[in-house]
Structures are given as structure tokens and as C-alpha cells.
Amino acid sequence: METISFARGVPAPELLPIEELADCAKTAIERDGAAALLYGHTLGYQPLREWIGERHGVDPARVVVTNGSTYDRPRKILNGFDEVPLDDDGLDVDELERLLDRDSPPAFLYTIPTFQNPAGVTLSEERRRRLAELADVRALRILEDDPYGLVRFEGEPLPTLFELEGGRNVMYSSSFSKTIAPGLRVGYVVLPEEIAAGLEDLVASTYISPALVTQATVLEFLRRGLLEPNLERVRGLLRDRRDAMLEALERELRGQARWSRPEGGYFLWLELPEGTDATELLGRATAAGVTFVPGSDFGGEQSSARLAFSFAAPSEIGEGVSRLARLVPAVAAVKLP
Ligand SMILES: Cc1ncc(COP(=O)(O)O)c(C=O)c1O
User: Fold this and answer.
1) d(CA 76, CA 72)
2) What is the DSSP letter of 295?
3) Three-state SS for 236?
4) Closest Cα to residue 176, out of 38, 30, 52?
5) Are 25 and 326 a contacting pair, CB within 8 Å?
6) Are 114 and 148 in contact (CB under 8 A)?
7) Sign of dihedral through CA atoms 62, 65, 66, 71?
8) Is the CB of 175 under 6 A from ligand 1?
9) Which atom of ligand 1 lies at the shortest distance from residue 187's CA?
10) Nearest to 109 by CA among 121, 122, 97
11) Cα distances (Å, whole numbers) of residue 305 to 257, 296, 300, 325, 333
């Protein structure tokens, strides 16, 4: 029996624009191999920095193109620091204000406002405006991690914190992992100029320069105008997967569990019946051929789970949810100590 994975927060192979990228890589090397095949600028392939700078309306000197934008790193580095709770409208800004009043000023706030990983929730527009104002009024530095913003398949796009605040205290990071392909390892961050310049030595002494061939390949993809059509395709494929998962949950777990209904991104958040140990469920689910990540791995409730709908095919998703749902009553009956 094939395992159906709701654990892997990665795109299904059919989401990857393989042929287009093969062609873009060839052209990128032929056109600019003399630069892209050498050690390059520590802060990234210069023409791509310029493209990103233009897209965000900033000087390219503020753009650092990196080998991916990472997610597990901030989670590891920030583990143990204060966490601001989330609800259905994203980060609880009242709670953040209380923390700011109570403690000494933090070095920065790390946040994923759109289709948050793991919970799939999105910060409401009203809260975005309040947070942008806090950044300004309290000189609160914010790192806005936004790899999913363009992967919206329903509803109206919301302004980023970076746009609302003007990029003075808000630093913005994104990635081409969800919009083109994660194996390219091309992400970026827009920083205040002095911080960007300060990274040159650090980059030089850790990895010399980032992988330039894939950066040149991404630029070719962008210049050919392939991003928008690719996004349209990816959004459609993800919407079908999200819908398959929502339908299956409704069919199998209605009245027993609660789940979020994300308008984009890769994940939804499942709240199992109170007292259910999702880690125990995972053990049984793995044996039954379906996997997910327990919410407690992200600091969530013991009875919560992150389900990724990005990887499994729509035709497998219903079966995966059925396998999971069959196990819930038995695990829910085993009360947590
Ligand atoms: C919150 C978050 N940030 C960033 C990323 C992108 O990581 P990378 O650019 O290293 O592939 C991801 C991907 O999983 C993510 O979930």
C-alpha cells in the first residue's frame, strides 16, 4: 500500500515547470555563463537583484538573494523566545502589544502573515494595518516571511506589512520555492541598506557566494514572462487539492473535528476531538498508510495536526483522509494523562 503524505510541505511533481526551467537554464548559461559560472557577488546575481528591487520598489542594494529563504532555521533559532498566539485572523496584535508593554523591546518580530505555516491562517487587513503602525510607532523591527503570498487561489490579495509600512522597520523575505520550484534554492530578503551591506562579509566567510546558475535561470524565467502563467497553473492545481481535502474532511469528520479553510498556500490546520493525542494518531496512521505532522511539533495543541495538501494527488487525498478518519475514534477514546 502506497503511503499518502499530508506531511510533506512540498509541491507535487506536476506543479514543477520542468521543461520551461530546462530551457531557461540552457539559455541562462549560454547568455551569461561567463558571469553565472564564476564566483559572483556575495549578495546575489546582480541582474536578479535588480529585477527584485524593481518589483518591490527598492534600490537593488537592499536586496540579498540567498540559497532559499528557509523556514526551519528561524524556527530553530527562535525556539524558546516569546511566542505571540494566533487565532483565525492571524497573529493576536493585542497580545503582542501587551508583550511589548511588559518586556524590554525585542530585537525583532518574526511573522508569516499570509497562509502561515503551520496553521494556514492569514493576518486580517485590519491587523496588518495595526502591526504596520506598531512597527512605525514603537520602532519594532519585523521580519515578514512571505513565501506563499502569490499562491492565493481564492479571495482578494492583502497588502504586505512591507508595503503598508514602507520597508523602514519591516524586512521582507520571500522565495521562488512555491512560485517556481524549491530545488532551485532561490530566495531573497529586502533589508535596510546598512544591514544588507553588513551581510557581505558574513556571506563571504560562510559560502563565498550563492548558487548563481539557478539565480540566472530564475531571471530568465521571469524575463520570459513565465511567472504569471505558472502561478495561474499552480494555483489551480493547489485549489483542486485543497478542495479535495475539504470535501473529504466534511464527509469523514464533520461534527468530530474542526479545520481551517485556507484561501491559498499549502496547509490546513486540523483540530481533533479534545483529548486526542495526534502523536499517537500519527503512529497508527503511518501503519495505515497516511502521514501528517502533529501540531505539537510546532508548539500547538496536542490534539492538533498540520495537513499539507500540496503533495498528494487530488485522487489520493480522499483516500488519505478516510484512512485517517477511521483511526480517530479509537485514539480519541484514549484520554491524555
Ligand atoms: C514559512 C516559510 N518560509 C519560507 C519557506 C521557503 O523556504 P525555502 O525558500 O528555503 O525553500 C517555507 C517553505 O516551506 C515556509 O513554509
Assistant:
1) 6
2) G
3) helix
4) 52
5) no
6) yes
7) positive
8) yes
9) 9
10) 97
11) 11, 8, 8, 13, 17
H-helix segments, the chain: 18-36, 46-56, 72-78, 93-102, 125-137, 161-165, 193-206, 212-223, 227-253, 278-288, 314-333
The DSSP call for residue 225 is: T
Buried b (16+ CB within 10 A) or exposed e, 271-284: bbbeebbbebbbeb
> Which residue from 64, 65, 70 has its CB within 8 A of the most atoms of ligand 1, so it is best to mutate?
70
Separation CA 110–CA 145 (nearest Å): 7
CB crowding 236-264: b at 16 or more within 10 Å, else e: ebbbbbbebbbebbeebbeeebebbebbb
Q: Locate 105 and state its grid cell.
A: 523591546
Tell the residue nearest (CA) to atom 7 of ligand 1.
70
CB count, 10 Å around CB of 8?
Answer: 15
Domains (range + CATH), the chain: 4-15+229-333 (3.90.1150.10), 18-224 (3.40.640.10)
Model pTM above 0.85: yes
Top mutation candidate among 10, 69, 148, 269 for ligand 1, by most atoms within 8 Å of CB? 69
- Is the CB of 112 within 6 Å of ligand 1? yes
Q: What is the C-alpha to C-alpha distance for residues 43 and 63, in angstroms, rounded to an integer?
A: 8
Ligand 1 pocket: which of 8, 66, 71 to mutate (most atoms within 8 A of CB):
71
Place of cell 497588502: 159
Distance from the CA of 334 to the center of ligand 1, in angstroms? 35
Express each pLDDT in 28-55 by its tens digit.
999 999 999 999 899 999 999 999 999 9
pLDDT tens by residue, 63-117: 999 998 888 888 888 888 889 999 999 999 999 999 999 988 899 999 999 999 9
